[in-house]
């Protein structure tokens, strides 16, 4: 079975970290050990990309980050991650699981920030060409559920502090995009964690059997 690039997407507090852990456990059941699994996140995943993540996540009282700047910083972090971690790992036969990838930019910056999909598609093609995940699991929660979960978290970062309208636009873009992409799997993440785990596990196992 050839190694794959798997991504997990969704709004804040949708359960992406838990989903990534479930995927790792399933790969273990297939005899794939941790040495052959790379678990990463966006933005971040390298020393430079993590520094860029801090710029995106933390409020800067001295200077406003424009939405276009935000997009470019995220892409700078993404290119660092792809070129220094993801591509090399895949070339060595390792499996890569990422908490977020390009779909996040399409939804958050394209939809949430109203930058539109055309700009992001052009940027993706210029920076990364046709490089994309083998499969993406999208964990869907409504914006109001997202905000309720964030309220329990305590201190929120710059993105988490966004409005209900922002997350509504972001989710709508997610839903719009996945309708036209057969490599994105929709999962209702408002369900109990145990049920989500079973759904994710069953789909992934069935998908792996076909590879």
The secondary-structure class comes to alpha/beta
User: How are helices and strands ordered from N to C?
Assistant: EHEHHEHHEHHEH
- The number of strands is 5
The low-confidence parts are none
Largest sheet: 5 strands, parallel
Q: Count of DSSP helices?
A: 8
Portion in helices: 40-55%
Strand portion: 5-15%
Distance between the termini: 6 Å
CA radius of gyration: 17 Å
C-alpha geometry: globular
Looking at how many chains there are and whether they match, the oligomeric state comes to single chain
Order of strands across the biggest sheet?
2-3-1-4-5
Structure description:
With 211 residues, this protein is of the alpha/beta class. It has a 5-stranded parallel beta sheet, with helices on both faces. The termini are close together. The mean pLDDT is 95. The chain has 8 helices and 5 strands.
List the helices and strands and how they pair.
Elements: E1 5-10, H1 16-29, E2 37-41, H2 47-57, H3 67-91, E3 95-99, H4 102-112, H5 117-128, E4 135-140, H6 143-151, H7 164-178, E5 184-188, H8 193-209
Parallel strand pairs: 1-3, 1-4, 2-3, 4-5
Helix pairs in contact: 1-8, 2-3, 3-5, 4-5, 4-7, 6-7
Quick tags:
single chain; 211 residues; alpha/beta; 5-stranded parallel beta sheet; 8 helices; 5 strands; 54% helix; 13% strand; globular
């Amino acid at each position: 079975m050839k190694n794959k690039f798997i991504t997990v997407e969704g709004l804040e507090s949708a359960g992406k970290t838990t989903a990534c852990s479930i995927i790792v456990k399933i790969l273990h059941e297939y005899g794939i050990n941790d040495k052959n699994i790379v678990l990463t996140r966006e933005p971040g995943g390298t020393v430079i990309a993590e520094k860029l993540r801090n710029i995106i996540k933390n409020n800067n009282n001295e200077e406003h980050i424009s939405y276009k700047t935000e997009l470019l910083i995220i892409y700078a972090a993404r290119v660092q991650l792809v070129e220094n971690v993801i591509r090399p790992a895949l070339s060595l036969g390792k499996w890569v699981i990422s908490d977020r990838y390009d779909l996040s930019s399409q939804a958050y910056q394209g939809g949430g920030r109203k930058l539109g999909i055309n700009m992001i598609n052009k940027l993706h093609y210029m920076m990364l060409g046709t490089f994309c995940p083998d499969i993406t699991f999208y964990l869907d929660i409504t914006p109001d559920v997202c905000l309720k979960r964030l309220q329990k978290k305590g201190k929120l970062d710059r993105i988490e502090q966004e409005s209900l309208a922002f997350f509504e636009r972001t989710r709508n873009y997610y839903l719009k995009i996945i309708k036209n992409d057969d490599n994105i799997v929709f999962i209702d993440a408002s369900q109990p964690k145990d049920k989500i785990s079973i759904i994710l596990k069953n789909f992934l196992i069935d998908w792996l059997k076909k590879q």
